[in-house]
Amino acid sequence: MLIPSKYENLRNNLLVIGADVLEKLKKKPHNIDDLYNILKKNKSINAEQYYDVLTFLWLSDMLRFEDYQLSIIE
Questions:
Q1: What's the pLDDT tens digit per position in 8-19?
Q2: Which of 19, 29, 40, 48 could connect to 71 by a Cys-Cys bridge, CB 3.0–4.6 Å?
Q3: What Pfam families does the record point to (predicted)?
């Protein structure tokens, strides 16, 4: 769920993970698998959370996906 509850660890919330994705993509575009591996080293996320975040960012027109490369829409 995207909306945090008071019992949830905010580090693992999808909105916080989404902010981390955008922060990484501001520097340069990444391959979809490489970005997952980078985030997995720093946070304890699973593939389902990662793809939920990407879907949310894509539906919000914040993310572009072309040729397996993720980038931010300016």
A1: 777 778 888 999
A2: 29
A3: MC6
